[in-house]
Amino acid sequence: MSEKRIGLFSQLLPPKPTWTAADVPDQAGKTVIITGGSGGIGKETARVLLSKGAKVYILARSEEKSQQTIEELKKETGKDSVLFIKIDLTDLVSIKTAAEEFVGKESELHTLYNNAGVMSTPIDQVTKQGFDMQFGTNVLGHFYLTKLLLPLLTATAKKSPAGTVRVVNVSSIAHVMGASEGIRWSTLSPGNDSLAARKKLGTARLYGQSKLGNILYSNELARRYGGEGIVSISLHPGAIKTDLARYSASLAQRIGRLITYSVTYGAISPLYAGTAPDAGELNGKYLTTWARVTLPNNQALDSELEKKLWEWCEEQVKDV
After folding, report:
1. Model pLDDT for residues 267-276, shown as the tens digit of each residue
2. CA-to-CA distance for 52 and 38, rounded, in angstroms?
């Protein structure tokens, strides 16, 4: 695949996909994790992977919703290798507990889908440890989960075919609408000063900043662990009909409905990144609709910013 920057219009109104869920290869023997797998794109991703023979772990906050999803998936696919582990990505302690539970149950992890996310939450909402809700959930939460699972991922890579152990990081085209400097660090740390900075930036740009963060840590993960067999890919799944935008202004929701697609389309890029044989060559790359390699904005390609964000995240989780 050629690497070029695909235009905004083509990303929002893409051509017909050339790769679909029907092209997902056999997943027998694969164990995968999907955060936010109880609904939306995550649920569709889980459905396809389960139908192809994978053992699927849904990591989500609501046990009731997840168990309902699991029963639906079992009926739809005729497969029963789908399990639930409770995780609250707004709480670093919960993330640690969830990772420990998974490692206690499984000896392999082939693909980690960092899929869950929040969007345009009220600006005064913070995580359990006091971080901006969007950055704390979308970036720091997934960074910490990935960090805790890296020993198992790298161990799995050592005994698996090259390029088959992957971390798929769901970002968004909204990464272009964050802070002018990329990451506005004053919005990230707990405290009143952070709240003032967040109010100044605004909830939409805070979301964009968090989606930029997803690409930055995905790229840095690729750089640091590609040599150990990990393939890290970030992506924009498309404008998809989910409840992600439930906090958005009603006008934005109405406009969004005009150019949104079903979760069947939304799962194409994640499934491609996680399963397609040729995606094993895409370590450190970014995909857009539908499973097309493109370039994110220039801030998302800033190696110094990638390193700085990784180090910032490490500092926040070191004492959990």
Report:
1. 999 999 999 9
2. 18
Q: What is the mean pLDDT of residues 237-262?
A: 59
DSSP tag of 183: -
Q: Give, as one character, the DSSP assignment of residue 168.
A: E
Distance CA 40, CA 115 (A): 10
For each of the domains in the chain, give its residue range(s) and CATH number, in order of start.
8-310 (3.40.50.720)
Q: How confident is the model at residue 257 (pLDDT cuts 50, 70, 90)?
A: low
Residue positions counted in the chain: 320
Q: What are phi and psi of 249, to 5 degrees?
A: -60, 145
In the chain, what percentage of residues exceed pLDDT 90? 86
> What residues act catalytically?
171, 207, 211
Report the Cα 255 to chain-centroid distance in Å: 24
CB-based burial of residue 140 (10 Å sphere; 0-12 exposed, 13-18 middle, 19+ buried)? buried
- Copy the structure tokens of residue 278: 């040729």
Q: Which two tokens mark 243?
A: 């409840």
Token duo for residue 165: 């152990």
Q: Which of 292, 303, 274 is nearest to 169 (CA)?
A: 274
With vertex at residue 77, the alpha carbon angle to CA 76 and CA 83, rounded to the nearest 5 degrees, is 100
